[in-house]
Design a protein that fits this description.
Length: 413
Amino acid sequence: MSTITIHRPEELSLPLRRSWHRAMDESPDYANPFLAPEFAAGIGRHRGGARVAVLHEGEEAVGFLPYERNALGVGRAIGLGLSDAQALVHRPGVTWDTRELLRACGLSVFEFDHLVEEQKPFGAYVTGTFASPAIDLKDGDYAGYAEWLRGAYPGLAKTTLKKERRLARDLGEMRFVFDERDPAALRTLMRWKSAQYRRTGRMDRFARPWIVELVEQLFQVREEHFTGVLSVVYAGDRPVAAHFGPRSRTVFAPWFTAYDPDLQYYSPGLIMHLRMAEAAGRDGVRLMDLGRGDKEWKDWLKTRELRVGEGFAVRPHPVATAHRLWRRPVRGLRNTVLAHPRLREPADRLLKTVGTLRTTGRMGSGTGTGTGTGSGPAPRRNTGGQRGANAQGNSTPQRNASAQGNAAPRRER
């Protein structure tokens, strides 16, 4: 077993961060920006229990496990509920004994829900694997966005381009900025997303000041392995839709997408994702990881699926037993609902009803907190065009919003 040292993620030395970057570069499994030290450091500035276990072989750092720990020794992947990729990032050929690793970290249990498939030493503790749809990108010899769209998504091209032309005719010339640096646009995105969460009955992430501050800080990060990218669709001078998410040199991870609810007729969620895919490919990104979740819009846009695991790595300890007995049924129920449309659709309708009551003030003053307004109708399914566009017409669809114990809440897309 390697020697293990424990560090605060925001206090890692420059040589350790460089070794971490090197491990990311040596395996495509670890190219996701959520696995970068910059993301771990961002979480560490706001979560007191954030740590990184560094595995050493002799004098060389060869592996990095970012995690969060509470006072009882219950651990979780760093940013659980916000991160779409989790792993012990390591150099090729490095392995570890999971129980010894947990003991060195002071953990009785380590919970994860987006573990990358390569993590063989954690394999015995995986309770389920799930698809994480992805888009393979390439920078082809295209004259522009319209030609790229017709080549990449011929079934969506006609309807999408028609809606973009209509948007330009109704509101002004349409333009897309892949890497917008205006902080006001970021605030607009968070206001829209906050309103969307509450309108659809989900937990409002941006009602939590630390998540607002985290996003604002990551927006400022401009590094090779992690850059916070804000993208905006404008019609004239009016923002129509916006997205914020991280990218590495080769992987782009969509994170928070929202739009002006008054403009849902134009399918702004679809326009945003297609514009981002085209621009990211031109900028050197080769994979757009859409994240775990069975959503129709992901099925239409994906070119393949990655696999991620969820589960609990444990060592013999009463706290580990209690935690697993408490959390595993909750996860099982959630996964059952998400996997069956007959259960998921009534659950979504119930959440939207709750959201309507919140935004109209019928549930009292304690239920509708957030950073944005609750104005705008609940998204409706677009009834025009072909099926692929319908799936995208409302917005980026929602993810399960149950809080993960003391973890950050699971975000919705």
